[in-house]
Structures are given as C-alpha cells and as structure tokens.
Amino acid sequence: MTRKAHVLASVLALTVSMTALAACSSNSKDNGASPSGSQSPAGSASAGAGSSGAKDTITALLPPVSSGFQDRFEQLSKDFNAQYPNLTLKIEPASWEDMTQKLDTQVNAGSPPDIAFIGSEGISKYVQQGMMMDITDSVTPEMTDDYDKTPLEYMKNGTGLYGFPAYMEVHAIGGNKQFLEEAGIDWKKVQKDGWTFDEFREAIKKGVVKEGNETKRYGFVFATAGVTSKDYLNILIKNAGMPASFTTDLKYAYTSKNFLEVLKDVRVMIDDGSMPKELSSIDAGKRWNMFLTGQTMITGKGLATFENSANKNNAKIDANDGSAVKGSIKVDYIVLPVPTFLGQEPKSSTVVDGYVTFRGKKEPTAEHKANVVKAAYFLASGQVAATTNNDLFAAHISKSGRKAAESMTVNRNPDNVAAVQTLLSHATPARPDIPAELGAKAIKIEDEVIIPKLQALLANEIKPEEMYEAVKAAAVKAFGADGVVTD
Q1: What is the per-residue pLDDT across 390-416, written as a single tens digit (0 to 9) for each?
Q2: Highest taxon of the source (predicted)?
Q3: pTM, 2 dp
C-alpha cells in the first residue's frame, strides 16, 4: 500500500515512497470490493502520433500504490481495452520492497517495461542510463493541461517529459492525539505554526513512558530500515536549509555545515531515550505497528493515507472481529510538521510519484510511443487516479481526477486537511534544472555512502563527524572541490 504528497499549495494538494509514498503506508490490507467502471478521460484525448489502430501491448510494472490497487489490475486492463480495443495493458505486480530491484534488472537487460511506477527523484538515474522515453512529442495538450502545473514539473528532467504524476504528497510526521494531549502538547498550534528542533526535542521527551528501566512508550519512532532507509534524513535536511541535493547554482548541498548539525541531532534523540536504540532495524511495518499498539507518541514518516489506515483499524477494533492489528488501540491520527533546524524556514519534503515511461535498446515506433502515453495517462487520470488518491487521502492533482472524485466520500479530520495545506504552502519546488548526470551522481552517493553511513550512525557505530567527512569526501571526488558547498 502506500506508502507515497511529498508542493501542492500553488500546487494544489497532495502523500510522499512509496519511493516511497508508498513504502510508508500501513501493511494492513483493505479487501473492499474493487470499483468498476474505472474509465478515465484518456479516451477522449486525440490518438496522438502514428495512430493506425494496429494491435499493440503496453507493459507496466506497478507496486501496491494504495490499498486494493493491485486487486484492481484485472479490471484496469479490461477498462483500458474497452477504451482502446486494439490495445492490451499487461500489468506486472511488484511489492514495494522488490520494485526497484525488478525494475533495475529489466533496465540493465535493456528490456524495461513501457511504464513503471516510481518516484520522480529517480528519473535522472534512468535518463542517465538512456532508458527513459521522452514523451514530449507524443502527449496531447488535453493531457498535459489536465494536470496542476507543479506536480507535472516533477516528471520532467531538462526539457524532457517522462510520464504523468499520480499524486503529490507531503512528508510529515503523525501523532496520537490522546498521547499528545497527555504530554501537554498544543498540537493545533504546532499544526499552524510549526516547531523548532529544540521544541520538538522537549516534546518527545515528554511522550516517553517508562516502567522501571523499561521504556513502554517512546516519544518518536521513525522507520529507517529497508525501503525507508533514506527517508529520515531526507525529510529532516529539507528543514535545515537544504531543500535539494544541489543549490540553485548546482553545487552539491550536503557538504554544508548544516548537514553535520542535523546528523548530531539525529543521534541526540536516541541518546535522550526519546527514540529506540534499535532504530536502525525498524522498518515501515514495525514502525506502524508500534504506533497502533501505543508504543510511540509520534511516528514518521507520516502521510495522509495513515489517517485512513488508523481509521480502518479503529473500525476493526469496534467490530471486535479479530481483524485489527494485534494489541492495537484506537488512535486519532494527527498530522504534524517536521521540526525546523538552525533557524531555517520550513520546507516541506514532497513526493511526486507517477507512471514513468521507458524505452528499450531500440527506438520505439511513433505509434507504440503514442500507445504508451495513452496507457500512462489512463492510469494517472480520471477515475483511476481518483480512486487511488481517495484510498490514500491524497489530494487530486488533475481536473479529471477531481471531477471523478466528486461522487466519492472521504472521512478526514478537517484539522489534518488544514495542516496538510499549510505544509504544502512550504513545499519544496521541482528541480528539473538539475542535469541528469549530476542527479545520477547524487543518487550514487546516497546509495553508496549516505544510507550505509546513516545506518551506522543510528546504530552508534560511528559519530556524526565521521559520517559527515565520508559524505564530503565522496562529494568532492564526484563533483570537485568547486562543485560542492563550502561554508
């Protein structure tokens, strides 16, 4: 489910995993009936380049974007074929945990799927490998005009457009309303005005409950293992004056002294006892289980869909049918902002995930390219998008999605809706100006240096200064001494 909303103020509204919106959602599964008639307005768009009506198959590699999403695959394929009788949409399911591995294996073999659901931050990696398909010359104005401008920008790299956005989610953290109030935390004020790291640190200390030497409840728990391994630091550093891995003059940002200060703060929350010592082994599922069972006051990363997941578990508790998470308690989920660091302005981490278009070793025909565009737009618009985003409690980012959602009801806490809008007003902008080569190098540093060093830092195997120096050395090697921030 999803996991990944992480700019929808100007932008509109949102998630986001799951690289992650998704990887970060609850592991509980909604087995409700799949909606039928999931036709999107894609069929009304002009056929695009090279439309001859010849039979064609479009392949898609898709994770469980929302609860029940994969249950609808057969229906989605039928609806697409009904809209385009000459076209077949062949969907391969993947879990969040193996999505990247499956995609990379296919890309490296030179035979990727036509469409894959990934985070927009991964586009530069595949552009650099020459496997992304620029659809700029194949989309219709009706398609691009359907989307809010900001999320569509996230699907670009340079001048190329590489797919359609599914949602824009904002990464937040989430609190247990009862526990927050017991700790004396004015969560409504925090939702409205935010909080500094020092204020946050004191708040999570108050959320700790101990019995003798045993901690029964932590103040804060964040998933840092598995597919969530990069989320924690990425979310925090946005609020420390580093909204992207590169500054606007294209210098690598994480050599800033502010990066080191955040690393120190990451460690101090564990040393305070506000977070578990075994934080480096907590994955998304365990994090959510700890929240639902009352073992933490605040959890992260928090996405809009978590409120929905908590509501569903509450209903299962009320039904007393044994289907609720074992040992869980009823929870009123409260959206909270990530704290700011070092006097910096709030910058919400956003996630724009979507249906990204790939090509194989051979240049695709104009007709196949146009068919892939139709399939990607079908998945990312209209009722398909509306159903998925309602499952996620994510805001709709297309006109067709909003229209289709008018007949759907969503039971959301209005305080949370307002909090998300506030977060979106601080959302980080898209950075299509970052060259694919630089973006790919930054991803390599993240995968090979930042993530493993962060795991070591969380496990108390290295000090913050050691991690900082390792990242700095890798950055200077990759970008040169003049290509990194020095302050």
Answers
A1: 988 888 999 999 999 999 987 889 999
A2: Bacteria
A3: 0.74
